[in-house]
Amino acid sequence: MKPKLSESDVTFGDLTEKNMGQLRKLNEYLYPVKYQDKFYKDVLAQGEWAQYVYLRDVLVGAYCCRVEMLDEGFRVYILTFGVLEAYRRLGIGARMLHDVLRKVGEQPGIKEIYLHVQVGNDAALAFYRGNGFVGDDVVPDYYKNIEPTGAILLRKCIRQ
User: Which segments of the protein form a coiled coil according to its record (predicted)?
Assistant: First the structure.
């Protein structure tokens, strides 16, 4: 049985130039994709939309989002969102998503949040669908150097 976490057990922290190496290392463990320097530079520019997540002061995950302009309003794209395997199924991912959705809710101009999930990543699909994301559209060849190359586009409408 997994231990129940208190509200204070999970905390968030900003990404900075000084701690960006931690994100690089974390991403090496979490994803089959090697992110280039430009990705990390762009993520740093996102401010509060890119956060580390800690469990009792131990770095266990991170999320990185980008705010995009629309003709009328904005939308948020989840670039990366992950928790180290040993810390999954503790509710940390749910807390991370809650943090993102809280920020989205505080910005009245944001219409939707969306992301791509690799075809075959059933755990991620179940997580996002269980949190109100919808979509079945497969984007072929979304990923260039990993198999499978397809991604499923998921969206969550925030406001009309």
Answer: none
77 is catalytic: yes
Name the active-site residue from 40, 63, 116, 128.
116
Residue 112, both tokens: 């939707």
**Choice among 54, 77, 114, 143 that is catalytic:** 77
Q: What is the C-alpha separation between 26 and 30, in angstroms, rounded?
A: 6
pLDDT tens digit sequence for 79-113: 999 999 999 999 999 999 999 999 999 999 999 99
Long-range pairs, 82-90, Cβ under 8 A, ≥24: 82/26, 82/27, 82/30, 82/31, 83/53, 84/26, 84/29, 84/30, 84/60, 87/55, 87/60, 87/61, 89/2, 90/2, 90/3, 90/5, 90/55
Cα dihedral across residues 69, 35, 116, 103: positive or negative: negative
What the chain holds in terms of domains, given with CATH numbers, is: 7-157 (3.40.630.30)
pTM: 0.93
